[in-house]
Design goal:
Blueprint lengths: L33 E3 L5 E7 L9 E4 L4 E4 L10 E5 L16 E14 L9 E2 L16 E8 L9 E15 L2
Parallel strand pairs: 2-4
Antiparallel strand pairs: 1-2, 2-6, 3-4, 3-5, 5-6, 6-9, 7-8, 8-9
């Protein structure tokens, strides 16, 4: 399952052009390939199905391993949930463009994008804000199974906090 030489924060086009700084990976990866990092985290190789805003944003992954920023409107029951990690050489968040390929985290401790005042250890749901989760189960939102945040988010919206992923997936719609 492990692959030597994976650069987990680097996304590349299908032609091999890189989105971030760093050496070119020495092997090609196939969509759906899994990688277990030395720190115990697991990652799945996906293709961006639309722009991904960058580091910490939540994505849904369909059966073809297309990653789409999660929203209440663009989510399907049973899709896997993962976290996009895309960074420039200086560690700053870097947007991913449609068609680029890279690694999405699906297991372990991670930085997760959440809404203002999202509560720790609460049921998280999709929101109308792309790539962001909340603990407010409004009409039409979908529950996320297998992902919790460890610290209640302060009053600022759209920030990352530490969470724990356990092979998360999208559940039913809230009434």
């Amino acid at each position: 399952m492990g692959t030597i030489g994976a650069i987990l924060t680097l996304w590349e086009s299908q032609t091999g052009a890189l989105s971030g700084a760093g050496p070119r990976p020495h092997r090609s990866y196939g969509l759906g390939d899994c990688y277990k990092h030395d720190d115990g985290t697991f990652w799945v190789y996906c293709q961006a199905n639309g722009a991904l805003s960058g580091d910490g944003y939540v994505v849904s992954v369909d059966e073809s391993y297309n990653a789409t920023e999660l929203t209440t409107a663009a989510s399907a029951f049973g899709d896997r949930i993962g976290i996009c990690h895309s960074q420039a050489a200086d560690g700053s968040s870097l947007a991913v463009t449609t068609g680029q390929r890279g690694w999405v985290q699906v297991y372990g401790a991670s930085s997760v994008r959440v809404a203002a005042s999202a509560a720790a250890n609460a049921q998280l749901t999709s929101t109308t804000t792309t790539g962001e989760l909340d603990d407010a189960a409004g009409t039409g939102t979908r529950n996320i199974r297998g992902l919790v945040i460890n610290t209640t988010q302060g009053g600022s919206a759209g920030l990352n906090t530490t969470g724990l992923l356990n092979w998360p997936e999208l559940q039913g719609t809230n009434a």
